[in-house]
Amino acid sequence: MKFKKAMAIGLAAAMTLSLAACGGSKDKEEKTSDSKTSDKKSDYSVAMITDTGGINDQSFNQSAWEGLQELSEETGADVNYIESKQASDFVTNLERLGDSGATLLWGIGYACADAVLEAADSNPDLQYAVVDNSYEETPDNVTGVMFRAQEPSFMVGYVAGKTTESNKVGFVGGISSGLIDQFQYGYEAGVQYAAKELGKEIEVSVQYAESFSDAAKGKAIASKMYSDGCDVVYHAAGGSGTGVIEAAKEAGKWVIGVDRDQAYLAPDNVLTSALKLVGKAVKEVSMEAMDGEEIGGQTLTFGLEEECVGISEEHKNMPEGVYEATLEIGEKIKSGEIEVPSTKDEYEAFITK
Amino acid sequence: MDKTAKILKKPFTMTIIAILCGFLVAGIILSIAGYPPFHSLSVLIQGVFSGPKHISNVIIKSTPLILTGIGVAFAFKTGLFNIGAEGQFIMGCVASTTVGIVCDFPAVIQIPLVLAAGVIAGAVFGGLVGFLKARFGIHEVLTSIMFNWIALYFSNWICNLERFHKPDTIGTYPVNESSYTMILGKWKTTKEGKEALLSSDFLKDTILKTDVNAGFIAAIILAVLVSFLLYKTTKGFELRAVGANRYAAEFTGINVNRNILHSMVISGGICGLAAAFYITGNSPHGIATLAAFENTGFNALGVCLIAGSSPVGCIFAGLLFGGLLYGGQSLQYEVGAPSEIINIVIGVIVFFVALTHIIPPLVERFSKGGKKHAK
């Protein structure tokens, strides 16, 4: 078992290395070819700043960067990033990217939102975009990119409702905000939808870790939930969530991952994951901008319809038939038959229906 | 021979050698990792000097490091190792942010008020450590490390209070605009200001696009003031006497415990001032939920060490640190080298600076050996 694990890790490392090597050499080739045939499409340059999570955060920063790398492979656009170590670096880093000739600049995560506004204000000729934030008033050279995270949350909530045997499920959030509300209420609605279908009552206990990086606290909360009788817990808590998954492993209960397929963290305990494909959205918006479309001054929203959210394909841990049923739910959401709530008020309206 | 030995023994030369060694080792590490060392280092230097904007960003980045460095150096002169600079800095941030949000007076009152809040918070937090040391003899390193954590979690708690937390962000509201200490802060966001600054490339780069603030000027003034206090006043003599040999100091009638307390209060106050300028002078003008220490106070230890705990030396050491931290990002950006490499450079420099103490005896032995041969 241990040997297998070591082998798997080794293989994964080798693959990443070789991938990285490919990426590196390709970049160089592109750069040299650029200088020769400069009239081609690749004078477009896209760059991003990470939030303080860093580029290898196993979450949206990494996903966004993967999206940009794909963009570079497909179109030959120049892509680059700068990691931000602290909040006061955001504006400085955006300025630096602007200097280096980037035409479209991404701020990843709502923590960068104000910095993006500030940079956009002093560089009216550059195009900016920010992930996970919508402004009340969006300047002409800024695009907000939002996800309907309630949709995959509804789907995993439905899975949780169908899977639970103790009729008690849990939700662990990061820091309470409008963004995490989408996850929470989408999930709760999904659970209630399944409960209605099964004709039983399912209780959802909700708790916040008050942090996106406190794995110990995430673990403590989830452990408490499991010992209180929850058998499925969904988390939308970033780094605190790794603690939740850890707790599931120890308790031998189900956990639902978030943002990316987190099955690799605990293959026998991750029931499914609610996907939020930041990279895909980043890539698509960047492509639109490259094609010369006006993307500024608005907030673009991505959901099931755009195939930027969903649940992981792997479903060996789910009871039979649940995966298929959940996909049908997905279709119903797409067609508008189910309107998924994303706030408390909408949720209350949803369950009284 | 004697002449070279003399030059080699000078702290300044030794520091320069240490810095060069740091770059040398960094170059070796870079080439082992597969990045071209000369190109990388030139990128690093270009990242700092290639334009007025970068220089002004380096100064901004250095300001809190210089100020906290002076704070640490001050305590060091009294024989205290203020590893709690980080916590005092965080408490200063918390205090100036909360005061800056709650109060909204005209700038003439507001700025001194916010700065004072930072200084007082830092001073109280540093003073606590000094008190515990003076009254109960608890080692300042132990207490201040613990206080760092208290500060971190206190800051996160404040950050998430409804009164201060800006909805849908990870941080607090910014402080009220009247407390901004940027140069031409308010004017440059107005239309006329923008037009005026945009007309000149130099002004546009240095002032409009960066958060140039008064902190750096304050740092220079403070360095001079602290030097004056330490070397030209009776109080300074007492403080240094306690640092040099507390028993001898006690024997001559200097109140050691009181001086320890005073030293920590002042040291903490300076760190708090650094924080207050950081909050009022840099966007986002508030505190964010911290997952880990941001290292301003810890880097200050390195700054102080490189500066040989001279307050004026801290200005240059702080600029070096700030330059490395800022230029290091272009290393990542241009060459693709991980930004951690810059932490290695800094680590190596600090390591070699610490090693310089073995140079004088080495030089001595070497020159003596030379004399023997001459005989």
From TrEMBL, chain A:
Domain of life: Bacteria
Subcellular location: Cell membrane
Signal peptide start and end residues: 1-20
Membrane topology: Lipid-anchor
GO cellular component, one term: plasma membrane
Keyword Lipoprotein: yes
Region span, Disordered: 22-43
Listed Pfam families: Bmp (PF02608)
Domain called ABC transporter substrate-binding protein PnrA-like: residue spans: 46-344
Family: Belongs to the BMP lipoprotein family.
UniProt xrefs under PANTHER family: ABC TRANSPORTER GUANOSINE-BINDING PROTEIN NUPN (PTHR34296:SF2), TRANSCRIPTIONAL ACTIVATOR PROTEIN MED (PTHR34296)
Full protein name: Nucleoside-binding protein
TrEMBL record, chain B:
Top-rank taxon: Bacteria
Key words, A-Z: Cell membrane, Membrane, Transmembrane, Transmembrane helix
UniProt key word Cell membrane: yes
Gene Ontology molecular function: transmembrane transporter activity
Listed InterPro entries: ABC_transp_permease (IPR001851)
Cellular component terms per the entry's GO annotation: plasma membrane
Compartment(s) of residence: Cell membrane
Record flagged with keyword Metal-binding: no
Protein name, UniProt field: Nucleoside ABC transporter membrane protein
Species this protein is from: Faecalicatena orotica
Taxonomy of the source species: Bacteria, Bacillati, Bacillota, Clostridia, Lachnospirales
Entry's transmembrane regions: 12-35, 55-76, 88-107, 113-132, 212-231, 260-279, 300-321, 341-363
Membrane topology qualifier: Multi-pass membrane protein
UniProt xrefs under Pfam families: BPD_transp_2 (PF02653)
CDD domains: TM_PBP1_transp_TpRbsC_like
